[in-house]
Amino acid sequence: MRVRVSTPARLHLGIIDMKGDLGRIYGSVGVAINKPRTIVTVEPSNELVIEGISAKRAASFAKLMLDHLNIDSYIKIRVVSAPPIHVGLGSGTQLALAIGTAICEFFGVSMTVEEIAKVMKRGSISGIGIYAFKYGGFIVDGGKRESNEEIPPLIFRYDFPEDWYFVICIPHVERQIYGSLEEKLMNSVHESLKTRNPGDQARVILIKLLPSLIERDIRSFGEALTKLQVEVGKVFSVVQGGTFRDPIIEKGVKLMLNCGAYGAGQSSWGPAFYGLVESEKEAEKLVKKMEEFLKKHVEGDVFYVTANNEGAKIEK
Question: Which domains does the chain have, with CATH numbers?
Fold first, then answer.
């Protein structure tokens, strides 16, 4: 038997509340996207073999699940494809869930996506990657109580218009933010908010972003998306030095908006940033503009993509 799991990536559009004085902290907004995909296969083997892209990282995730299930059976795990790591597309969560799910399917173990996520130590801050894997679509999670280890609950999920396109740029910048550095920066933001307000993210999301999505009003949705990025950027400016984590992202976002994108922003810590347009033709035109921009400044990758409204696919 051979199991194949294919998962979407995700754009993380912002954190709602870093202050935590209402009894919950974080809360996130995001959307699943059709590429770059994480694809993992599991099949029988005479020994434990883990190969392909990010094999070392994959091995650590496989060990977590195999140890949890107390399984010594030999299998071959292959990571066929995966997004670049630590660029803002959620590669770690998708790889962890793909491997955990594939192992469970191979051995006939019934576990929910949320249970697998806990075993794989995902969802400590955001639930967007978990629900992108499970459902796809546009997602809002409700943050978490600081006193427990539960993953953030899903509070809103909606099909994203499939004729709206994201143009995504990944500039080749040096600093990547993850792990202990991310934890340190998040703690710094949290501490800074003890003496100031967390921002206006919730109002933008509830009163403009979500209604515009439901009404399929791309202009209002894009305005809300850009406004949300500004509000999130205000909160994180204490560690980013501004609305964005790097000047090249700020320049790129402004260019996207000047070139006709309805909305634009930075995904998670970046360096990936995105612009929203209404058609494939507009996406192709914007890709060319952004390729010229990156070539002039720092090099990088540019592509366009639609939202994913299905979540992960499992094949046996």
Answer: 3-159+310-315 (3.30.230.10), 165-306 (3.30.70.890)
